[in-house]
Amino acid sequence: DAVVQLGEQPKGRGVGLDVQLISEISINNSTFLERNFTDSERSYCSSAPSSQASYAGRWAAKEAVIKAVSSAAQEVVFDKGAAAPLKDIEIVREEGKAPVVVFHGEAKEAVERAGVKEVKVTISHSGAYAVAMAQAN
Amino acid sequence: DAVVQLGEQPKGRGVGLDVQLISEISINNSTFLERNFTDSERSYCSSAPSSQASYAGRWAAKEAVIKAVSSAAQEVVFDKGAAAPLKDIEIVREEGKAPVVVFHGEAKEAVERAGVKEVKVTISHSGAYAVAMAQAN
Amino acid sequence: DAVVQLGEQPKGRGVGLDVQLISEISINNSTFLERNFTDSERSYCSSAPSSQASYAGRWAAKEAVIKAVSSAAQEVVFDKGAAAPLKDIEIVREEGKAPVVVFHGEAKEAVERAGVKEVKVTISHSGAYAVAMAQAN
Question: Tell me, what's the ipTM?
Answer without folding.
Answer: 0.88
